[in-house]
Write a structure and sequence with these properties.
The complex is a heterotrimer of chains A (302), B (296) and C (534). Chain A contains 15 helices and two strands. Chain A is mainly α and 302 residues long. Chain A has a two-stranded antiparallel sheet with strand order 1-2. In chain A, helix 11 runs antiparallel to helix 14. Chain A is globular, with a radius of gyration of 24 Å. In chain A, 53% of the residues are buried. With 296 residues, chain B is mostly helical. Chain B has a single domain, classed as MetI-like (MetI-like fold, Orthogonal Bundle). Chain B is 73% helix and 0% strand. In chain B, helix 5 packs across helix 8. Chain B is flat and about 75 Å long. Chain C folds into two domains: 196 residues, Periplasmic binding protein-like II (D-Maltodextrin-Binding Protein, domain 2), CATH 3.40.190; 244 residues, 3-Layer(aba) Sandwich (D-Maltodextrin-Binding Protein, domain 2). Helices cover 43% and strands 12% of the residues of chain C. In chain C, helix 2 packs antiparallel against helix 16, helix 12 packs across helix 13 and helix 20 runs antiparallel to helix 21. Classes of the chains: A mainly alpha (302), B mainly alpha (296), C alpha/beta (534). Chains A and C meet through helix 6, helix 13, strand 1 and strand 2 of A and helix 1, strand 3, helix 3, strand 4 and helix 5 of C.
Chain lengths: 302, 296, 534
Amino acid sequence: MKKISTSKFLSNSILILVIIGTLLFALFPIYWTLTMSLKPAVEWAPAVTHWWPWNPSLENYLPLFFERQTLIDWGVLQGWQEAIPDTAIKSITNSLILGIGGTALSMFIGTTAAYAMSRYKAGGNFMPYLFLTFRMLPPIAIMIPIVIWISTLGLIHPALGMDSHLVMILLYGLFPMPFVIWLMRSFFEEIPKEIDEAALIDGCTPLTTFLRVILPLVKAGLAVTALFVFILNWSDFMVALIITRRLAITIPVQIGLYSTDYGFLYGIMAALGIVALIPTIAFGLLIQRYLVRGFTFGAVKG
Amino acid sequence: MALSDWFRIPEKFSTLMIIPVQIVMNFTAMIPFALTWYVGMTNWQPQITPFFWEAQFVGIQNFLKIPGDDLFVASLARTLLIVAVCVPVEFLLGFGQAYVLSRNFRGRQAIRVIAIVPMMMVPIVTGYVFYLMFIPTGPVSSFINLITGRTEPILFFADPNLALMTIMLADIWQWTPFIFLIFISSILALPQDPINAAYVLGASRGYTFRRVMLPMLKTPIMIALILRSIECFKVMELPWIMTQGGPGYSTFTIQMHLYESAFKYLKYGFTNAQSLTIFITMIIIGWYASKPLRGG
Amino acid sequence: MSKAEKVSRRSFMKTAAASIVGLAVGAGIGYSVSRMDGAGPTETVTVTTGTGAGEFPFNVPVKGDTPAERAINAANYLLEQNPEWKGSELVIAHPGGYGPGYDAMKDEWEQKTGTKLVHSDIPVNELFDKIMVEAISRTGGYDLLCIQPMHVSDLAAAGVLYQLDDASKWFDNRQHGKPDGYIYPLEYIMPMYGGKLWGYVHDGDVFTTYYNKSWMDEPAEQEGFETQYGKPLTTAETIREYLDLGEWFTRPDDNKWGINENREVNRNYIYFWAYFNSREYPNKYPFDDEMNPTVTDDDSIEVAEAFVEAVKYMPPGHLALSGITTYESFAQGLIFENINFPSAANKYNDEASVSRGKWITDVVPGWMVKGPDGKEVLLRRSVQGAGWITSVNNHSKKKELAVAFAQYLTDPQKLILAHLAPGWHDPCRYNAVGEDAPQELKENRGPLLPPFEKNASIVTPVIAGIRGATEYNTVLSKNLHAAMLEVSMGKTPDVVKVLEDSADIWKEITERLGREQQIEEWLAYKKWYPTVII
């Protein structure tokens, strides 16, 4: 009979406890969102707790994708439920465009700058901290001046003005940029400078060194940073609220629309919340293989 | 100088690499940033005049009025309280979770992905869902009544302290995965040699952890704490959705105060001054807090 | 210093220099472009296209029997003058979910003028914030705005709204009087600021009192109430009676409660004014003629105490519920009475509602006050909760067309279509209430309609018509919420302190916005309050 040492038993039970804890803690609100999205309106804030939907239905997902008139024709909407905004399709596509575009822009400008800061000390020793301070500025402070500036630009060309995709991508590229610089800089610091020098000696230009030699080495870092930035942009409410009107409306603002003066349509909000989870989770699954190897953020070299 | 030299000569290349971020920043944010300072020194209110250059310039007076503004100070204190509670809790939970889940066990990939899902939920939806979870007829109250035998529903949102607690709970739920992700990656990447050497030499788990692993994790710890603190300080969507700052003013954070002061009360000028004060304060605090990362 | 430091210092300088150059270039662009735009606040626009030069709207011929017809004909005339507007879109900014009311009305317009209605939804709590940004951005991205009366003053002063006096008179959008004008004084207290008209009303939002008839009719209740309070069990005439009824029906063990009103943190001011405005003849105004707050006098303290007392008769946790989740409890048959929005009727009439068919409405209760001849008289005042008006964006690129559209959308007959559609376009004209209202509307709104006209004739506003209205109201609302919280926890709040704190902040607001102008605006607005005794 094999005797399991007490310390191993202890550590195994801790492991199991943590696993169960993680599952419950992380998943219960997700479960609640999911069930809320499957509950009909009477069950949203009922007199007793409905732990699962007593009459589950997909009716909360329909207004996201089908016009009001279509739903009325199908006889799906009744009574006061008919006072809902238009479909959420536009906001989903916009969020995807702005999320991906903003993330790409942010990664581009951040990674290039981070590389220069790591390898060439560009901008001095304090540049990274300067960028970090941008995150410290409360967004309110800069939103009104940004509105003034953007509406001025809008007079030159509407694509540069309020409620335009281009401007939103610029802002979504700008605001997470300190994040990118900080994270990518630490990933670059992880890679010994000898590799750079070896590549240069071998005849590579600095550009080729960057693109062909260094970047592949930080693939994991790029993936995780991109995930963070995408989540930051995907969740943003304030900037989208102020700048977008109807052409560039995003998912968080769309969710706000379901809090009407006539009632809070919790089920529809939950449905859109579940739909909004899908691209982020897909992104996460795509990069999960990079999480196996891990990275030390520049703490340990070699 | 030929164009291709920019790609070949290292010094030129470094300048080239900095240029994209310069372009985006200068084009998008430089003018607004300068304007923030100007507007912060005026009494601009759009219903007096919609043109900021016509607003009355008052210089430093706005900044001098700030300490006397009780609501500002109270919201600031409350926000600091939230940060002081949430960030350490998120840190300990995330770090502990990452430490335990970094082991090899079946299904570890799945668990690690599940652990980061909360971060992916749109914060507005998180706010509404947590609100629904904590209403008197919600699951939390029912569950607590179930196990403690109470019959009356718990009114989380009617009590100032409980309301603040629910908001902290929502924030912890949403952002622990951030810490978790940072640490699961760093722990997995630690060089195994020093650790194995410590075990071989007979060190206990605790000792190995404290003396071998922790020093190697210094950088990610600092990064996680700094980044998370800065973001937590700006918490607004969760209390906005869940309690609108109520009951009374008990869950009113500084960001909410700034938003309300600027957009509902239309004190564009004065609010800018307040925001800039916070900005400067955070820079000073950040300067001292990041000293270990820079030098020591 | 070492070479590395020199290099780093130099490179920092280079970056700084680049930033400054960028700043200068940007400033140059901004300056020159800003010189291109010059629309100021409240400028009247002169339309000089075509042969009929002159000021809009006087250069547009008036043809048609109804406001909608006149609007369509005016629009077609304007489209002839401005062919580039043909087939274009008119954007309305409105709260989320408000669209169906507009959609119900738009068909004839779209057919006859070829221009389309486009919705731009905004989350209702951020509506004011977003539309105010238009004052700074001046893009004309919206053509029509759906705003609340409380917002009119700030938006008009910031130059976001287009003045409609001339257009309203020229095209006669049936502003005043029976049979199909606006119920007096709605057309004054809602869209007027500084003596000018800034929007066309399309949603009255006149508060009414709802009662649970099935409880009221029970003989056991009637006997018991009369024994305890010495009055018969009928609808309340005074606030004191209202509270007594609330107290009588509060039975926590049976899960029955007397009152439920929406007392959320940012909006409970509406209900406060419902208790407050009838405390003095002819009205208790929140400010005196010098813009000093009156909320610190003894009458106000009595009102505030009554306001806060009502919390005792509400279900627990009520303070934290927002929006119309509060209506649920009445719809579920758990509540006896509430002073509330007219659109609550839609919720109470819903098929899922337990109270369906079991509720009635009556005029809002008031106070016994000293009348004009010195004798005590019952004074009742309703409050205009949060109605909506359709305004024209001053920075719209198709202002004149938008004016015509606004008239079309508030035409008396078209509004009936909106009242019947889901959403909350509430009655605001004489033709939608009373005996002659369309049968369908009467069935749809049920017992809401009979006292509607009466309530509307005594309707008073929240603080409106002066700049900073939102701020005055919200500050009071938050302070009151803190006091109500103490009541719900069983403590006695210091109501006097709440009122004094609010009054202090109000004084600061008035000073900041310019006392002279505030007094002017207040005196101009004050005269629209009703003076009747019913």
